[in-house]
Every structure is written in C-alpha cells, then in structure tokens.
Amino acid sequence: MTPDLAGRGVVVTGAGRGIGEAYAKAFAAAGARVVVNDLDADAVTAVATSLGDDVFAVPGDASSEEGVAALVASARDHLGEIDVYCANAGVARGGTEAVAERAWDVSWNVNVMAHVRAAKLLVPEWVERGSGTFVATVSAAGLLSIPGAAPYAVTKHAAYAFAEWLSMTYGDKGVRVHAVCPQGVRTDMLRNSGTSGRALMEADAVDPDDVARDLFLAMEQERFLVLPHPEVAQMYAHRASDPDRWLTGMRRLAGGLPGSVLGAD
C-alpha cells in the first residue's frame, strides 16, 4: 500500500545513494515533491535529475545547526510546506570507548543531533497545523546494539530514543514519527563495514527498496516501528525479558568475530 503523498513536500537527507535514494524514488513515484540532500553534491544532483522536475537537489551538511537551518529554509523555498522529513543521513564509526574523539563527535552530530536540530525547526509548525511526519532512519543496532562499534551502537540507541520521545510528546498533536530499524542493507555502508560487519549482516541483507517499501507500509498503518527484518522484534523482546542472558550471548558473538566492526576513523 502507498500512503496518499500526492503533492506533499518531502525532504530526504543522505539521499545520494542507498536507503536515502530509495526513499526519494518511492516518494517521487507516489507523486510527492521532494528535496534530496547529501554531502556528495554530484551524487544527490544525479538522483534529483533522474527522478524528474518535482525533485530538487540541495547539497550540503544536514547535521550542524547552520546546515540544518539552511536545508530547511531551502526546502521551504522549493516546497512551501515540509510535510515529511526523513532524517536518513548517518555515519558508521566502529571501535571501542578508546576510539578517537572525532569519531564520537561526528557520530553524535550526524546520527543524533541532526534529528534534534531538524525537529526543533519543524515540530512547532507541525503542531500548529496539526500534521507532519518525521522519519528517523535508525538501525537494528539502536534496539539490539552491535559488537565492536561503540560510537555507532550508542548513537543509534540515542536516535531511537529521540524518535520515541518525539512520538510520545507530539503524537496526540498530529505529529507522526517512524523509526526505521533494519539490520544489514545492501549499501556502501555494509560493503565498507569490514570482515566482521559483513559476517554479521551480509547473509540476511535486504535491498534499499525493501526498506522504503516497509516505511510506506508503516506510514499507511500509522505504525511507529519499521522492521525490514521482522526477526528483530523477537530479539528485542528477548533482550528486554532477560538482559543477562542477552549480554552473555552478545559477548559470545563478539568473541567469535575476526576484528572490529565498521570503520574507526
């Protein structure tokens, strides 16, 4: 099923490739007017060009306070109103608590504060008019954690928590929130995740278009949690019901991996 998106104004960050590009394609096919954003200006411009006259490229930073403000202002110029904002841009930094401070800083800004900063600019208008949709591309790691990648695991937990908070705070005021939590997705992030990352996620990986399809189904059903890998729900329940057993299993999993997961720079 496809939600009624004809003529709606949509922003998708991290849309130069992967899940973001798939979101943009799906929204455009549904008749929405779409602003696509990415740090890679060439990639996001190519996506916009391929999707037609109602898709506009706005390259730039979607994480800093100034960058988010510029993106939202430009999107409003193109679209008038922003009806759906997909906070999809993300970074994957691996390593332990000892990883360089820059890895933590970048992870917090891109994976968490980009969402906070966008919501700060969008939510007041949405509450005033009684409608608006915030899509947070999180990760199954935000529900389950992931070995060998402390900055990624911690910030994805935070991104999920912020999406949950938005929903509980503004859900009765017309703001819909969706948290998208896939495991492996066939993107550059997975391909660049190293031997351990691929060992964890590659076998059951889905395509970006599958993630977009599941998001649209959740939007149609007004459902908060989007799980392209349905088995994550059972894992999440097990984690909550017996944390010690869960942690024992995660230690066993981590001990069997050949090295750290994701990049540590």
Automatic annotation (TrEMBL):
Q: Pfam families this protein is in?
A: adh_short
Look up keyword Oxidoreductase and say if it applies: yes
User: Do you know which PROSITE patterns this protein is assigned to?
Assistant: ADH_SHORT
Ordered alphabetically, the record's keywords are: Oxidoreductase
Among InterPro entries, the record links this protein to:
NAD(P)-bd_dom_sf, Sc_DH/Rdtase_CS, SDR_fam
Question: What CDD domains does the record point to?
Answer: SDR_c (cd05233)
The record, for SUPFAM superfamilies, names:
NAD(P)-binding Rossmann-fold domains (SSF51735)
**Alphabetized PANTHER family for the sequence:** 5-KETO-D-GLUCONATE 5-REDUCTASE, ALCOHOL DEHYDROGENASE, PUTATIVE (AFU_ORTHOLOGUE AFUA_3G03445)-RELATED
Q: Which family does it belong to?
A: Belongs to the short-chain dehydrogenases/reductases (SDR) family.
Q: What is this protein called?
A: SDR family oxidoreductase
